[in-house]
């Protein structure tokens, strides 16, 4: 960051502070959730094999239902990723105003400009909270959907077995199926939090890459100029 050309960069102090605090924390927090991505997939495969052994062809009813919900996840996570980028951008703007206040606090106090800057900070914070509220509402929807997936899949499996195929559902089959579905409940509960951390880390990593990819200072040219002046 020290070598970024100040004449070419588009960054402000607020963005740099946010990169060094929030974005770095997002990447560090995501490391703890990496293994929660593939473990639920293995549990899902094991549960599907067990269900196929217990209830047979009706298992595909639940599988088809879960596959049908995947586009909802894709669209939802795409929207949340855009909202996450917008949230960080709004936070950059707010931190930039706060940094401006801290740098010019003497002038602000001597000229009695507190109210104007207070309104600017409040406006930036309200704008940030508006986007943050939309982001959290989207996460609530996806968390509820993912948490309810085992029960919904179980219902779809039973409907396929009894209504579509026409089999009779006995107690042993029903309770065994419910037990296998319950094994997925813990995994389906932790997947939303894992997805949230990984998505935030991906957004933060992109912001840091964009910052570091900006033009750097030409140290060779500046060194030549300095030598010419010394001569």
TrEMBL record:
<keyword id="KW-0067">ATP-binding</keyword>
<feature type="transmembrane region" description="Helical">
    <location>
        <begin position="139"/>
        <end position="159"/>
    </location>
</feature>
<dbReference type="InterPro" id="IPR036640">
    <property type="entry name" value="ABC1_TM_sf"/>
</dbReference>
<keyword id="KW-0813">Transport</keyword>
<keyword id="KW-1133">Transmembrane helix</keyword>
<feature type="domain" description="ABC transmembrane type-1">
    <location>
        <begin position="10"/>
        <end position="200"/>
    </location>
</feature>
<protein>
    <recommendedName>
        <fullName>ABC transmembrane type-1 domain-containing protein</fullName>
    </recommendedName>
</protein>
<dbReference type="Pfam" id="PF00664">
    <property type="entry name" value="ABC_membrane"/>
</dbReference>
<dbReference type="GO" id="GO:0012505">
    <property type="term" value="C:endomembrane system"/>
</dbReference>
<keyword id="KW-0472">Membrane</keyword>
<keyword id="KW-0547">Nucleotide-binding</keyword>
<dbReference type="GO" id="GO:0016020">
    <property type="term" value="C:membrane"/>
</dbReference>
<keyword id="KW-0812">Transmembrane</keyword>
<keyword id="KW-0677">Repeat</keyword>
<dbReference type="GO" id="GO:0140359">
    <property type="term" value="F:ABC-type transporter activity"/>
</dbReference>
<dbReference type="GO" id="GO:0005524">
    <property type="term" value="F:ATP binding"/>
</dbReference>
<dbReference type="InterPro" id="IPR050173">
    <property type="entry name" value="ABC_transporter_C-like"/>
</dbReference>
<feature type="transmembrane region" description="Helical">
    <location>
        <begin position="60"/>
        <end position="80"/>
    </location>
</feature>
<feature type="transmembrane region" description="Helical">
    <location>
        <begin position="30"/>
        <end position="54"/>
    </location>
</feature>
<dbReference type="InterPro" id="IPR011527">
    <property type="entry name" value="ABC1_TM_dom"/>
</dbReference>
């Amino acid at each position: 960051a020290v070598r970024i050309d100040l004449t070419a960069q588009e960054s402000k102090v607020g963005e740099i502070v946010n990169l060094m605090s929030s974005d770095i924390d997002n990447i560090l927090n995501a490391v703890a959730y990496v293994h929660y991505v593939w473990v639920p997939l293995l549990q899902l495969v094991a549960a599907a094999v067990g269900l196929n052994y217990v209830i047979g062809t009706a298992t595909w009813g639940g599988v088809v239902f879960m596959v049908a919900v995947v586009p909802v996840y894709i669209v939802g996570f795409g929207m949340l990723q855009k909202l996450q980028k917008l949230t960080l951008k709004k936070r950059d703007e707010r931190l930039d105003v706060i940094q401006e206040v801290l740098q010019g606090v003497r002038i602000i106090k001597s000229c009695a400009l507190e109210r104007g800057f207070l309104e600017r900070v409040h406006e930036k914070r309200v704008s940030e909270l508006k986007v943050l509220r939309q982001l959290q509402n989207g996460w609530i929807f996806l968390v509820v959907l993912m948490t309810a997936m085992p029960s919904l899949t179980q219902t779809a499996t039973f409907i396929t077995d009894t209504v579509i195929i026409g089999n009779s559902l006995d107690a042993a089959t029903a309770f065994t199926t419910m037990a296998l579905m319950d094994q997925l409940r813990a995994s389906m509960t932790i997947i939303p939090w894992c997805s949230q951390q990984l998505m935030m880390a991906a957004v933060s990593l992109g912001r840091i890459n964009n910052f570091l990819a900006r033009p750097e200072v030409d140290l060779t040219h500046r060194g030549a100029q300095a030598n010419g002046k010394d001569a």
